[in-house]
Design goal:
Elements lengths: L3 E7 L3 H10 L7 E5 L7 H4 L4 H5 L8 E2 L12 E2 L15 E2 L4 H10 L7 H11 E3 L13 E3 L7 H12 L16 E2 L2 E2 L1 E2 L2 E2 L2 H6 L8 E5 L1 E9 L2 E9 L2 E13 L2 H11 L2 E2 L1 H6 L6 E2 L11 E9 L10 H14 L11 E5 L10 E6 L5 H7 L13 E8 L7 E3 L10 E3 L6 H19 L7 E6 L7 H11 L1 E2 L29 E3 L14 H16 L4
Parallel strand pairs: 1-2, 1-15, 2-12, 6-7, 15-26, 16-17
Antiparallel strand pairs: 3-4, 5-9, 8-19, 10-11, 13-14, 14-15, 18-21, 18-24, 18-25, 19-20, 20-21, 22-23
Helix pairs in contact: 1-14, 5-14, 12-13
The structure holds flavin-adenine dinucleotide.
The site of flavin-adenine dinucleotide has 44 residues, from α1, β2, β13, α8 and α14.
Length: 541
């Protein structure tokens, strides 16, 4: 095993795979990627419809639970995060979306992230991309990341979009060009009907390079410092502790939940918290682990007459779709979970939409069972076709934090997040859910609706909505912000992603995001990896 490297990348997820691939393009630099999970060589990762299974697998999903959340009836809320090469991009819903001009211009102008405006990040989105649709100014061709138009669209997705227009939304012509205000069909991170994770797109083609070593099953414990300069990384492999000397830089890409604990174990973090855990402080950085935020999420579902993807009890349909996928790479097994999207304002006076709708051609009763208990009035989703409008709040005000349980790298971090700490977040979610009722009732969708599903009474009172939100909300699967970028002295990383207070450490993952974009976060993570690699190469200042 290699003992010395120029760059060590800690974590092989969305951004980590980009970093390892891009940094090893220079044959004179030795790059090591350490990933705690496995290589993720799984058919269920490759086949888009395997999503449900890989999300339920502890080898591919960390399956965290939060600390009890007082704003959600003291529930310990389930949080997913990808594990193994590809990280989140290997188990995610494959929605490809970047965010808006406003999001990134706001980072740049208001949050001190100079150099991260829309015009400056767009070239990096395009650099990654291999879009299978028409060429245009917003898309890239020939990049490592397969971005595909949906290979099968459920007919009710078109009805959903028509209904959105009937209730006053516009149709967005090119949602990758910085405007998502209205309804549109999203693209998927796929190539020829197969999932294109960051491992598949970026890392696999680079694996044969002699200057790149990828070590799976490697749990990074800490960065080794001499004074404030990073000189190595300690990790556990096959039960033994090992050190790699680093001549260049250490790149942390362990994700929003695991990068702060890694920094803290290394002595970089809130001083008092580190001392409480018996850790020698290398640099007291109070913001490490803070500013955690997520997209709160709750489905609004209806039963419909047409068959939807609630077909797991129908072997004939499954066999037909299996054959179709085998021979054409098309059909239900090739599709991403989300078939259309829309963005709306919870308050008409808002300049930009703050609520995201994801149209799913299926529904699930799992949430409902927990909520309604033994007297469950909700139908069985294994036996009833349904569709869902998944409702997300894109710009939550509430903030949480990540804390260290103890100094053992195998211990789970503490996720301390009160999702509705700001009551305005609860109110905006409620408004978003109620407006989804209006979409279901619009002429284009109403004739397809057979019955209510979850909630059983969509016209329940505000108080009942709020109770349901507290009892059943999930996360939008997009945690960010725990190593915030900025140009203020408190920021964890500067605008070139260097960790403030130490030398030789950068962060490339969603933890650096100062404020959630109006988007799912895989494409942003990949863009962050692309930019960080350029910063390290010195191609950009
Ligand atoms: C179920 C799910 C569905 C999602 N759906 C979508 C979607 O449809 N579209 C979208 O855009 N986004 C989606 N996302 C979000 C998106 O995938 C993530 O935001 C993105 O993958 C995060 O990238 P990252 O590089 O920040 O971290 P990750 O991809 O999470 O990578 C972190 C990596 O570090 C590894 N690691 C952690 N600790 C250590 C350690 N100590 N030592 C070694 N390795 C370590 C992890 O195992 C992991 O592989 C989804 C996420 C999930 C979980």
């Amino acid at each position: 095993m290699i003992e010395e490297a120029d760059y060590v990348v800690c974590g092989g997820g969305s951004a980590g795979c980009v970093m390892a691939a891009r940094l090893s393009e220079d044959p004179d630099k030795r790059v090591v990627l350490l990933e705690i999970g496995d290589a993720n060589d799984r058919l269920l990762v490759d086949v888009p419809a395997g999503l449900q299974m890989v999300v339920a697998n502890q080898e591919t999903n960390w399956m965290y639970f939060t600390e009890p959340d007082a704003t959600q009836n003291d529930r310990r809320v389930f949080w997913s995060a990808g594990r193994g090469l590809g990280g989140g991009s290997a188990i995610n819903g494959m929605v490809y979306i970047r965010g808006t001009t406003y999001d990134y211009d706001h980072w740049s102008k208001e949050l001190g992230c100079t150099g991260w405006s829309w015009d400056e990040v767009l070239p990096y989105f395009k650099k990654s991309e291999d879009f299978d649709g028409e060429d245009g100014p917003s898309h890239g061709k020939g990049g490592p990341l397969g971005v595909s138009q949906l290979r099968a669209m459920h007919p009710l997705a078109y009805s959903f979009m028509d209904a959105c227009k009937e209730v006053g939304m516009g149709e967005v012509e090119d949602y990758c060009a910085g405007d998502i205000d209205g309804t549109f069909v999203n693209h998927a991170t796929q190539r020829n009907g197969k999932r294109c994770s960051a491992a598949e797109g970026f890392l696999k083609p680079a694996m044969s390079r002699p200057n790149l070593q990828v070590i799976t099953g490697a749990m990074v414990d800490k960065i080794l410092f001499e004074s404030n300069r990073a000189v190595g990384v300690r990790f556990t492999y096959n039960g033994k502790s090992r050190d790699i000397r680093v001549n260049g830089e250490v790149i942390l890409s362990s994700g929003t939940i695991q990068t702060p604990p890694l920094l803290m174990r290394s002595g970089v973090g809130p001083g008092a918290h580190l001392q409480e855990r018996g850790i020698d402080v290398v640099a007291a950085r109070e913001q490490v682990g803070k500013n955690l935020h997520e997209h709160p999420s709750l489905p609004n579902s209806r039963l419909v007459y047409e068959p939807t993807y609630n077909v797991r009890n129908n072997p004939l349909i499954l066999a037909r779709e299996g054959l179709k996928y085998l021979f054409t790479r098309r059909g239900w097994l090739a599709t991403a979970a989300v078939h259309a999207m829309a963005h709306v304002r919870s308050d008409p006076d808002l300049q930009y939409p703050d609520i995201k709708y994801q149209m799913l051609p299926f529904w699930a009763d799992a949430n409902a069972k927990g909520y309604f208990g033994a007297d469950n009035p909700v139908p069985d989703s294994a036996k009833n076709f349904g569709i869902t409008i998944g409702v997300n709040l894109m710009t939550p005000n509430s903030r949480g934090q990540i804390l260290l349980q103890d100094t053992d790298p195998a211990s789970r971090p503490m996720i301390d997040y009160r999702i509705y700490e700001d009551p305005a977040d609860l109110e905006r979610m409620r408004k978003g859910l109620k407006f989804a009722n209006t979409i279901f009732e619009a002429p284009a969708l109403a004739p397809h609706i057979k019955a209510t599903a979850f909630p059983p009474d969509p016209h329940q009172s505000d108080e009942e909505w709020d109770n349901q939100l507290r009892a059943c909300s999930a996360t939008g699967l997009h945690p960010v912000g725990t190593c915030r970028m900025g140009n203020d002295p408190e920021a964890v990383v500067d605008t070139q992603l260097r960790v403030n207070g130490v030398d030789g450490v950068r962060i490339a993952d969603c933890s650096i995001i100062p404020l959630l974009p109006s988007a799912n976060t895989n494409a942003p993570a990949i863009m962050i990896g692309e930019r960080c690699a350029d910063f390290v190469h010195g191609n950009r200042r």
